[in-house]
Amino acid sequence: MNTVYIREMYIEDIPEVVSIERLSFSMPWSETSFRSEIYSRYSITRVAELNGIVVGYICVKHVADECHLLNLAVHPDYRRRGIAKVLLDNMIRELKIEGCRFFYLEVRASNYTARRLYEGVGFNMVGIRKGYYVNPVEDAIIMMKEL
């Protein structure tokens, strides 16, 4: 596989990011949502590029010593190549430098692929949010990694 390059997400990336978002989620974020995260002083937004093409992204909220994974997706044509893990590993390194101690996320209970990814980088289940997701209604598994 060619080298995946992780960089800051820019406004110009939003059309590609939203396209990936719509292919990945039943309740996708809007362009406005991504724009808000790019401009938020508490958010860290990164994209993964492969051969000059945006193939994935990650958005994290960082407040004090806690961080929360808001969004992570890889284009369906580029999945199962380790790109999501590269995005996560890069973000974890960055968050440690920024002083984050606790990294949280929610994941659909039925999303076993994502759960295995998160467990593989050291996240553990710490709770359940009943009925957290809609379309379809589903519980969220709360996971946390101490950094």
Order of helices and strands: EHHEEEHEHEE
Helix residue percentage: 25-40%
Number of strands: 7
**CATH fold-level topology of the domain at 5-103:** Aminopeptidase
Question: Which outline best applies?
Answer: globular
Task: Give the integer mean of the pLDDT values.
Answer: 95
- Supply the number of helical segments: 4
Gyration radius, rounded: 15 Å
Based on the structure, what is the oligomeric state of the protein chains?
single chain
Organism: hot springs metagenome
Pfam family, one: Acetyltransf_1
Protein name: Ribosomal-protein-alanine N-acetyltransferase
GO molecular function, one term: N-acetyltransferase activity
Describe this structure in words.
This is Ribosomal-protein-alanine N-acetyltransferase. It holds the Pfam family Acetyltransf_1. A seven-stranded mixed beta sheet has the order 1-2-3-4-5-7-6, sandwiched between helices. The chain has four helices and seven strands; from the N terminus they run βααβββαβαββ. Helices cover 30% and strands 39% of the residues. It has helices at residues 14-24, 31-39, 83-97, 112-120; strands at residues 5-8, 43-50, 53-63, 66-74, 102-108, 124-133, 138-146. The mean pLDDT is 95. The protein has a domain at 5-103: Gcn5-related N-acetyltransferase (GNAT) (Aminopeptidase). A hairpin with a 4-residue loop joins strand 6 (124-133) and strand 7 (138-146). The protein starts with a strand and ends with a strand. With 147 residues, the chain is an alpha+beta fold. The chain is globular.
